[in-house]
Amino acid sequence: MATIDTIATILNDNLDIEVEQVTPDATFESLGIDSLDMAELTCTLEEELDIDFGEPEGLETVGDLVEYVDSL
After folding, report:
1. In contact, 37 and 15? CB cutoff 8 Å
2. What is the CA radius of gyration of the chain?
3. Could you list the pLDDT tens digit for every one of the 72 residues in the chain?
4. pTM, whole model, 2 decimals?
């Protein structure tokens, strides 16, 4: 499964965000994702993808997150 699909599924399951809204250009702000939601998302991504997320800076869009995760 592509990283963006995994993120879309997690956001849909946890925050009821429609999968169609999760595009590379979508900002977390436009999706209504706050810092607590982002922390939950990163923890879930770590578990689902067996990665160590670390402390990334400057992630503003879904595309930024996809690039970061894919670089790990």
Report:
1. yes
2. 11
3. 799 999 999 999 999 999 999 999 999 999 999 999 999 999 999 999 999 988 888 999 999 999 999 999
4. 0.91
